[in-house]
Amino acid sequence: MSAALKTAKTFEIHCWKEETECIGLALRYGKRKDADWRHGEIIAGDVTPEFISLLLGLPKPTDTEPCNKMTPFFTIALDNCFWSEHYGTELSGTAGPT
């Protein structure tokens, strides 16, 4: 994710409705996006140095059920085709320049 953040300009974070703490954290860096997802919230914003610092500095969640979460956010999507899904347990897309 670190490499992908170097070239990304915008992000989306997807959280389930009941993840109010995660939604609140994401709203510090973006705004709610209108979406037809009744079970969750999508927060979108610009990739800033502060946002990068947040993502790279997050501690590994202690809540590891039902999966071994690596991030508190269900989905982190960057505009350069990088995706972190299922709490960081699945990564896909480009990682930026090597």
Description:
This protein is an alpha+beta fold and 98 residues long. It has one domain. The longest helix is centred in the middle third of the chain and has 9 residues. The two termini are 12 Å apart.
Structure annotation, total helices: 3
Strand tally? 6
User: Structural class of the helices, strands and pairings?
Assistant: alpha+beta
Beta fraction = 25-35%
Structural domain tally: 1
Average of the residue pLDDT scores: 92
Biggest beta sheet summary: 6 strands, antiparallel
Record the strand order, biggest sheet: 2-3-1-4-5-6
- SSE string, helices as H and strands as E: HEHEEHEEE
Query: Between the first and last Cα atoms, what is the distance in angstroms?
Result: 12 Å
Give a concise summary.
21% of the residues lie in helices and 27% in strands. The chain has 98 residues and is α+β, with helices and mostly antiparallel strands. It has one domain (2-92).
Properties at a glance:
98 residues, alpha+beta, six-stranded antiparallel β-sheet, globular
Question: What is the topological layout?
Answer:
Elements lengths: L1 H4 L4 E7 L3 H8 L3 E2 L7 E7 L2 H9 L17 E4 L4 E3 L4 E3 L6
Antiparallel strand pairs: 1-3, 1-4, 2-3, 4-5, 5-6
